[in-house]
Specification:
This is Integral membrane protein. Keywords: Membrane, Transmembrane, Transmembrane helix. By secondary structure, the chain is mainly α. The chain folds into 3 domains: about 150 residues, no CATH class; about 60 residues, no CATH class; about 80 residues, no CATH class. Helix content is about 60%, strand content about 0%. The chain contains 13 helices and no strands. The relative contact order is 0.08.
Length: about 300
């Protein structure tokens, strides 16, 4: 009899989340395609066919952003899932999760609009929406694969052992894990901190390694250490270059014109992103030479 091996790609109980992510990704890609089509044909003078996408307008020509539809769908699906929390089955939860994924995609696609309270969809600031979508996909993907936040400790201990010692140990380990995540975020390593909440060894690596030069940690601890700040700047520019190239390329495809970024554009982005943290106000006069030493 042949030996068969069954491998679950999706963690048990995560089927609704998988369909939520699929709906999220499909909706985001379709939405970006439609918006780019509308923008490309905005100046057209010919009559529009019934099937051609167009902006949604309300009374008096009010432009209705698709974030509004996203908010409505997220609220409806959220209330539905809360209602199903006791007696709902997998099928019902999956349907609600799909609606939630669609709404979340429409919402995060205009995250920059909410953040800046102005329409920056096609501007430089509008790329915050793409970053938010990348973060959401990464977190959902890790959850689907079976990773859990604060994975350093086994939550099963809490369920199986109700002794004071066991539960105190779980709480202490959770607090220490969160403290590591805070240190990593203060060092400016957002993605390491985000993924490290699911894969804890990354938090130890991020907490030990050098801070990014513009981060609060560098502002507090590197002001009187120009060599360390210079090392942080050099390391940041060297390591960030391929990341910036890939990010700009993806953003060009999703948010703008599909082209590989030129070296001048990459250098400009590096110059914009990579800089030394400003000195704390109390030390501006006391250490005037430190900032000049960073480039030395």
């Amino acid at each position: 009899m042949p030996l068969t091996v069954h491998v679950d790609v999706v963690a048990p109980g995560r089927i609704p989340l998988m369909w939520c992510l699929i709906a999220f990704i499909v909706t985001f890609l379709v939405t970006r395609t439609i918006v780019r089509y509308i923008r490309r044909n905005a100046d057209g003078t010919g009559p529009r066919k019934w099937w051609q996408p167009r902006n949604i307008s309300g009374h008096g020509g009010l432009h209705i952003h698709h974030v509004v539809i996203g908010v409505v769908l997220v609220m409806i699906s959220g209330v539905t899932m809360v209602t199903l929390a006791v007696d709902g089955g997998v099928g019902e939860f999956t349907a609600a999760a799909i609606v939630f994924g669609i709404g979340a995609a429409l919402l995060l696609d205009e995250f920059a609009l909410i953040l800046h309270l102005e329409d920056v969809y096609w501007a430089e600031d509008g790329r915050a929406s793409v970053d938010a979508v990348f973060a959401a996909v990464a977190v959902a993907g890790l959850l689907i694969l079976g990773f859990n936040p604060l994975s350093f400790f086994d939550i099963g201990i809490w369920r199986d052992d109700n002794s004071v010692l066991a539960r105190t140990t779980v709480v202490i380990m959770a607090v220490l894990t969160l403290a590591l995540a805070v240190v990593v975020l203060l060092k400016g390593k957002v993605w390491t901190g985000l993924i490290g909440m699911f894969i804890t060894p990354l938090l130890f690596i991020g907490a030990i390694r050098l801070s990014r030069p513009h981060a609060p940690w560098a502002r507090w601890h590197y002001q009187d250490k120009p060599r360390k700040m210079h090392r942080a700047l050099e390391r940041e520019r060297y390591l960030r270059r391929p990341v910036v190239q890939a990010k700009l390329w993806l953003q060009h495809i999703i948010a703008g014109e599909p082209s590989f970024p030129a070296d001048s554009e990459v250098d400009a982005e590096l110059d914009r992103e990579i800089h030394a943290a400003p000195a704390p106000p109390a030390s501006l006069d006391a250490k005037p030479q430190v900032a000049a030493d960073y480039a030395g």
